[in-house]
Write a structure and sequence with these properties.
heterodimer, A: about 400 residues, alpha+beta, Butyryl-Coa Dehydrogenase, subunit A, domain 1, Butyryl-CoA Dehydrogenase, subunit A, domain 2, Butyryl-CoA Dehydrogenase, subunit A, domain 3, 3 domains, four-stranded mixed beta sheet, four-stranded antiparallel beta sheet, B: about 375 residues, 11 helices, globular, binds flavin-adenine dinucleotide
Chain lengths: ~400, ~375
Amino acid sequence: MTTSIEAFRSETRDWLRTNCPPGAIGPGEIHSGSTKMSFQADTVAWLEIMADRGWTVPMWPKAYGGADLSLDQAKVLYEEMAAIGARLPLINMGTRMLGPTLLEYGTEAQKLRHLPVIARGGAAWCQGYSEPGAGSDLAGLSTKAVLQGDQFVIHGQKIWTSGAQNADWMFCLVRTDSDAPKHQGISFVLLPMDQPGVTIKPIKLLSGSSPFCETFLDGAIAEKSDLVGKLNEGWAVGKRLLQHERSGQGGLGPGPVRSRPVGVTVDLELSEVLARYVADPQTKSSQREAVLRWNMRNRAFQLTQARMGQEVRDGKTPGAATSMFKLYGASLAQDKQSLTAELMGCAGIGWEGEGFSEEEIGATRSWLASRAVTIYGGTNEVQANIIAKRVLGLPD
Amino acid sequence: MQTLYTDDQNQFRSVVSRFLEAHATTSQARELQETASGFDQAVWHQMSGELGLVGTHLPEAYGGFGFGMIELGIVLEEMGRRLYCGPFFSSAVLSGLAVAELADEANKIELLPKIASGEERVALVLDDLNQVEGIGHQLMISDQGLLSGTAPMVIDGLSAQRLLVIAGSATGLGLYQVDKGAQGLSITPRVSVDQTRKLAEVVFVDTATQFVGRVSPEALNRFWDLASVALSHEMIGGAERLLEDTIAYTKLRVQFGRPIGSVQAIKHRCADLLLTLEFAKAATQHVSFSLAAGEEEKHHPSMVKAMVSDCYRDIAIAAIQLRGGIGFTWENDTHLWFRRAKCSEVLLGTAGYHRERMIQSLGGQDAA
Ligand SMILES: Cc1cc2nc3c(=O)[nH]c(=O)nc-3n(C[C@H](O)[C@H](O)[C@H](O)COP(=O)(O)OP(=O)(O)OC[C@H]3O[C@@H](n4cnc5c(N)ncnc54)[C@H](O)[C@@H]3O)c2cc1C
């Protein structure tokens, strides 16, 4: 076992060193799979050679575009990528959220239709969950789908749809039985974004970064063959997908975490900015203590993640416990941004233009954007409710 | 020393409040933040002329109203509530206080009436807005009496009609004034998170100045104290408004068939924030009462700025969190206060800085 994993490591290392294009190393662009965006040549090249090896989704079966790697092998792959600073070749809601859900709930035909396209980076997906009236109370959604022949005809409105403007497909929760109790009348469907029944309207974010959208569904069509799970049993599917989303956000499972740049190992505790401020003799002892406390929490969090990771070696998502990691990981990320911003003092309020370094503006924008991590994927309050109910078994 | 606002002071607040209600709306703030000067001339004239607000805290002998920190605090709280955009804080508060505290008599006679009447909008150029100890290290007067150096952030530096500068020299710190047209002076806008308060970088290269007064370390610290308390009042106003609006939202927004404000987790968070706010407000107002009575304690201003910085930021964070997705949009007004909270948190020193400063004025020493 040890020898074979070491052999795998050296093979992987050699291959990566030979094949990773320079433009895929260090901070920079990552392919989203969108057919509506253009990417730099090296980004595309990197995606293509990695997809050829099934390494965009290394643990998926080969039949669906993966490489059938074990958890240990996948870890090795990511470690070796990190060692040379290689970015992920592909990152989107297809690889992280829909893919794993389809592997579990999809029919063979659905897997064959969608997974290889996702694995190759041939489509970007967006998440049609939230509605104006259904956020935390997601199961209160009212977008209606009616089965007509072989198609669902969908009417309703989704909101906060991240990346809808560049998405090719949407996975969507719809109400298919209005008379049933709210969790029992929901179905999970897949629909293409480019059709007359789908209109999107961008919403500008407070952080000034890429928008999310309102998505209007007026007679939008989803093929009956794209119903995932059984009719009216979509809530279980949708919830499962949320667990995949949260485990990504909480840093569970193998692979580099979205919020952690590839190339930064888990042991590097301080960001460059924080490290500099800690070294600065002007920094007060109380501020040093705050940085230290954050680092202790972060380290303990990572160790807990690692232990949980060991406990679920079969590669399954650890159910409701994902909420614990989502909750704590989100707070940690926010606290780090706040701490950085506070240490920077007046240098930490730059928005754009001259007078602030790129790093300073980056830190300020990250700090603003970090406000969202305790909201998306289910708010921190909702995670706490899930922990209380599903992990602790406390009554409603 | 008074411990409550008097009837007159309450009445004064309602006058200010009515005026700002009409002339400082959120939609105006949204429009003004897109402009270079960031303020409305007509409103400024009305505010300074008809109402005389600009001279609220400046001595009567120099054309002011002769009120003190209590009334200034009232004006600023009302401004903070509404995100008033304009040179009140830069000209009336920072420059007004600098002249009143640091100028010699002849210069008070020359400058204060102009500031108090609002006729001249004066910006105070400080080379450090993070800590009082940093002032006068970058901006220096040469032996030939010429000013050189950079102030990276000057509030309303671009729109001001005159600049006051605190600069170092071989003989110590001094307050100087510089004409906007002076040689070697360049002013460039700086875009911060909070566009409702305009910042500019100000650079001097061998610029001629006029001496306004000598600045002792004690006087400089007192100025910093007063400015910090004034800013704290503005922040309290903003924090209070934001919390009110947030609580109102939790009563309206329905999820799971009930207003989110009926959920215990939300109730508790709001209750905790109310306590934080009430304590910070009590402390801030107490400091102004004691300043007015000449009974202040040295560490109080820093205590207040530290409490208020944390309080406004925590309320602003909750204001976004408790709104969910809506709170994260540009259209929703919450982020305007959120941004103001952030900038105010660091202007004139963060909570961490002020806690250290407080310890030092209590006789302690930084162990670091
Ligand atoms: C940047 C960003 C990207 C997003 N991307 C997507 C996307 O791609 N697709 C998608 O479908 N959605 C997306 N969302 C939406 C996100 O999932 C919702 O915003 C979130 O679930 C909260 O719903 P809401 O906004 O309606 O807030 P509400 O549900 O109205 O919540 C308001 C406040 O009340 C609290 N609350 C509500 N109910 C309870 C309760 N029972 N107990 C305790 N507290 C409660 C919440 O925690 C929150 O603080 C995104 C959101 C953001 C900010």
